[in-house]
Amino acid sequence: MKNILRIIFFLLFLFQEVNSQNMKPSVIRNTPLKEHFDSNDYKGGIQNWAFDQTSEGILYIANNEGLLEFDGREWNKYEVPFSTRLRALKVDSQDRIFVGGQGQIGYFTKTKNDLIFTSLLKYLPNDKQDIAETWKVLEFDGKIIFNTESELFIFEDNNLKAMTLPGYLRFAFNVENRFFAQFYEKGLYEIINNEFIHIKGTEIEYDIIAILPNNNGYYCLTREGEMHLLNDSGYTLIDLNVNLGTVNDAIKLNSGEYVIGTQSNGIFIFNSNLILKNHLTKKEGLSDRTVKSLYEDDFHNLWVGLNNGIDYLKINLPFSLINEEVGVEGTGYAAIRFNNEIYLGTNTGAFIQKKEQHLLEGYPFKIIAESEGQVYNFSEVENKLILNHDRGAFELKGENLTQIQDIGSWKFMNTKIPNLIVGGDYRGISLFNNEINNWSTIQRVEALEEQSSRIMEFENDSTLWMTHVSKGAFRIEFNSNLNIQKKIQKFGKNDGLPSNIMIDVYSLNDNLVFTTEKGIYDFNLNSHTFSPNKYFNKWLGTEYVSTMISNRNNSIYYIQNKKFGNLIQKGFGTFENKIHIFKHINKFISDDLANISILDKNNVLIGAKEGFINYTPNKKLYINKNFQVLLRKVETQSSTDSINTYNPSYVDNIEITETSSIKFHYAAPYFDGFKDLKYSYRLLPLDENWSKWSSSGEKEFTHLPFGEYTLEIKAQNIYELESNISTFSFEVLTPWYFSNWAKMCYLIITIISLTLIPLIQQKKYRKEKSIIYKNKDEEIKIKDKEINKLENEKLKSEINLKNDQLTTITMHLVKNNDFIQDVQNKIISSLDQIDSKKELKNIIKTIDKELSNNDSWDQFAYHFDQVHGNYLKKLSDNNIKLSPREIKLAAFLRMNMSSKEISKMLNITSRGVELARYRLRKKLNLKRTQNLVEYLIDLDNS
Questions:
Q1: Looking at residue 155, what is its pLDDT?
Q2: CA-to-CA distance for 359 and 44, rounded, in angstroms?
Q3: DSSP letter at 358?
Q4: Per DSSP, which regions of 111-205 are E strands?
Q5: What angle do CA 461, 466, 471 make, to 5 degrees?
Q6: How does DSSP classify residue 287?
Q7: Short-list 306, 258, 271, CA closest to 285
Q8: Residue 654 CA to chain centroid, in angstroms?
Q9: Cβ distance 181 to 189 under 8 Å?
Q10: Cα–Cα 20 to 30 A to 851, which of 191, 497, 732, 804?
């Protein structure tokens, strides 16, 4: 029994070894994700010579035009006085930024308002101040050492002095806290106890550019590209099997890999055993072929100073790109590793990777002849590789194509019957036979004719599912000979699916799932209906999943809403949904026929808009979880538009007035996914809740009420980890009208007011009372005037009426008198013709009597006195005795009647009227100059 168990374990071990050999990861040429900054981005010169970071993580760069600063959000530039360009840079333990360049050495320090530069030339004697070049700035044993063209200057305790050198200096190095210096024709020296100690066997004629630590000593790399191993016995030349060309810089990464930057060949990346891993140059992963400097930041990513700009290579991430920069043109649709060859399919054709020994010769991928056009898939059937193409299906042997079908092909699948293949194409499903390398079509599924069959999966050996983009899902049952034995079943909205469109079927670890526009569904064999998959929908929601694939480690990769994700099963129905890391690549993913291909355990390829994204799941990712938001700048602006700027690191508290505004600029120097950083803030005590996450790195407050405030800021990185909270306090000053002395004044004013107000009110009451009385008097006068006016108007109306009546009576009298006189005249003229003269004379007397009748006069006098206020009575009482005729004459004259009219009224001649007027004037004692009528009128008004 034990022997049997041993045999079984041996066979299992052998199987694992064979399987692991078959799944041996392939080396795939790719380029890292990259961000490029040109001189327009950072507003400086094109060349960048050195990098370093402060303890806060802010990046500083030695640039041709000065010192560059990058905080993950903004670039700043600081010029160095009397220096044409900076070549060297080092941030010390106190966050002082030491720089060196042509004609200048010194350091920058932070102040209340900004960075300021302090030159160290003043500490040197005059004959040492003419510095042509400064190649390096190093920190060693608490000292700053400037490596100029021919000198080493040590800065310590605010004192700068030149070291005594054993020869003509080339370059100095600080490696693992050991200080080396190379001298012309003398080799390497090490400073021990402030003395230069020569290292034997290090005399070489080439300049050493970098000294890199390794397990057996140090690698010394020369400018000419030679690598030497330095140990106790001296140098040993190492063959890198690569022509590096001229070397400008080299560093050892935290991962143990080595990066070498060259003058004209870009960068070379070697593993810890000096085996070449990748080569990047212009248009092959880099923006320029000339590399001036290299720097690994706190996130284990690589900053590359170029002859023209800066590249930020995200080498820490488990992602890389396979695109036109490595020879793969077009949008990625399919990938496969077959017979240890890497095949990639795009919309321009099928590509194959060159053999590993030729990977660095030109583009590592080349297009397969006669494969030009749209590639949809690679299908592995019967140990053969099929290229599914828009021009049909082809068998692919190495780089040779043999056409199998001339209809646009989607996919080929094995069946349980050897050499019998199922193929989906533009027009439906076909069955192919492959015997002795001879392909033939033996059957088409007629019921699905003209039904494009891109997505197919076997439920079991005799049942095939095909889903159509707009017509639902089809279930095909075959017999043992793969002949259709039942009517093809069609499923759609009436069978539990949310609709008939956007339905796909995938086999995940031999279990079928159906993706729909409203989540993932399962098929129930008993009821032949669909129902939501509660496990997947719990973790993915109900949004459309465009593709899914699983590996043998219970890991499922998917693309949902153009976003990549990884479900890692932790237990039955329990998953970890890994999504945050993939934010780095989501912007590259293609939205046309989304596809994921698992080449091996270290290479998962995702179709991209340009080529493919290569995901390396087993690569260890370093995530810096301890980060913070930095308040970079505070600006205050007063009502007079003057702006003051402060460095929050050196200002404890800022005071502003109520009419001023305050603006905060903040950033988190988290360069790993810096474009996806978000910020949130709250202002205490005004805000209880945090603001919504925003990519904006500034906030302004205006018209704040007076009081003390504390601004709290936090950041969220691409992995949705939150930073520590940063705070800053400021005060809005109490306005003068709320100050203590103002309050005292208010109190005094209040007391005085309480005392004076009753007096003032009493005086006011009196005054108001007087005004009221006066106003009432005025109102009474006004009313009296109005009453008088109304009475006068009434009297005037009555007088006018009586004048009219008087005029009417007068005219009537005149008319009667005219009539009677006329009759009288006629009678007189006829006396001679009448016999009885006596009788006529009696008539005339009667008429005379009528004419002299006073009744008409009495009626006239009554109305005249009504109109003229007893005028006739006044005339009679004037102590002048007037006859009745004279009184009548005066009344008629008062009425302004003419002499002719008066003569008729008095029955006298006009001469008689004049005579009567004369007599009346005499009785009234009028002077010659006085007018009779005017006198009579004045008498009426008296």
A1: 94
A2: 36
A3: G
A4: 115-119, 134-140, 143-148, 152-156, 159-162, 169-175, 178-183, 187-192, 195-198
A5: 155
A6: S
A7: 306
A8: 28
A9: yes
A10: 804
| β-bridge pairing 654-656 and 726-732 | parallel
Give pLDDT, residue 316.
95
Q: In this predicted structure, what is the pLDDT of residue 676?
A: 94
Identify the three-state secondary structure at position 830.
coil
Q: What are phi and psi of 764, to 5 degrees?
A: -65, -40
The first and second tokens of residue 929, run together, are 């100059």
d(CA 87, CA 108): 15
Can you give the pLDDT at residue 259? 97
Cα–Cα distance measured from residue 62 to residue 293, given in angstroms and rounded to the nearest whole number: 10
| Cα–Cα distance measured from residue 57 to residue 55, given in angstroms and rounded to the nearest whole number | 5
Detail the DSSP E strand segments found in 723-863: 726-732
Instruction: Give average pLDDT by consecutive 10-residue segment, the chain, 942 residues.
Output: 39 38 59 96 95 96 95 94 87 94 92 88 87 92 92 92 91 94 92 91 90 92 94 87 94 96 95 92 94 96 96 96 94 95 96 70 84 96 95 94 94 92 93 86 85 92 92 90 85 94 93 95 95 91 94 89 92 85 96 94 95 94 90 86 82 84 94 95 94 94 91 95 93 78 79 80 79 79 77 68 59 61 66 58 64 60 68 67 76 76 76 80 78 75 67
Does residue 685 have a cis bond before it (omega within 30 degrees)? yes
SS3 track for 858-927: HHHHHHHHHHHCCHHHHHHCCCCCCCHHHHHHHHHHHCCCCHHHHHHHHCCCHHHHHHHHHHHHHHCCCC
Helix, strand, coil content of the chain in percent (nearest 5):
25, 40, 35
CA angle 837, 840, 843 (to 5 degrees): 155
Those residues whose C-beta lies under 8 Å from the C-beta of residue 332, and which sit 6 or more positions away, are 322, 344, 345, 346, 590, 595, 605, 606, 607, 608, 610, 611, 612
Q: What SS3 state is found at 746?
A: helix
The span from the CA of 301 to the CA of 764, in Å, is: 85
In a 10 Å sphere around its CB, with 0-12 CB exposed, 13-18 middle and 19+ buried, how is residue 377 labelled?
buried
Distance CA 444, CA 441 (A): 8
Query: How much is the CA Rg of the chain, to the nearest whole Å?
Result: 59
Output DSSP code: residue 722.
B
Task: Give the residues across from 270 on adjacent strands.
Answer: 258, 276
**Structure-token pair, residue 897:** 């009647």
Retrieve residue 247's tokens.
Answer: 């070397």
Cα separation of the two ends of the chain: 164
Cα angle 457, 521, 464; round to 5: 20
Name the residue type at position 179: F
Q: According to the model, what pLDDT value does residue 440 have?
A: 87
What are the strands, taking DSSP E only, across 390-479?
392-397, 400-405, 409-414, 420-425, 428-435, 438-444, 455-460, 463-468, 472-477
Going 183 to 188 to 191 to 196, the CA torsion angle's sign is: negative
Q: For the chain, give the number of residues.
A: 942
SS3 at position 184: coil
| pLDDT at 18 (0 to 100) | 38
For tokens 């935290």, the residue is 254
Closest CA to 134 of 97, 67, 182, 89: 89
Coil vs helix vs strand at 446: helix
* Beta carbons within 10 angstroms of residue 288's beta carbon: 20
Q: Check if the beta carbon of residue 681 is closer than 8 Å to that of residue 699.
A: yes
Alpha helices in 80-214 (DSSP H): none
What is the reported pLDDT for 822? 66
Residue 560 is given by DSSP the state: E
Q: By CB neighbour count within 10 A (0-12 exposed, 13-18 middle, 19+ buried), where does 294 fall?
A: buried
Query: What six digits make up the tokens of 502?
Result: 């956007």
Taking the C-alpha atoms of residue 65 and residue 44, their distance in angstroms, rounded to an integer, is 6
Structure tokens at 587: 């912007």
The whole-model pTM stands at 0.76
661 conformational bin, left if phi > 0, alpha if psi -120 to 50, beta if neither: beta
One-letter identity of residue 449: E
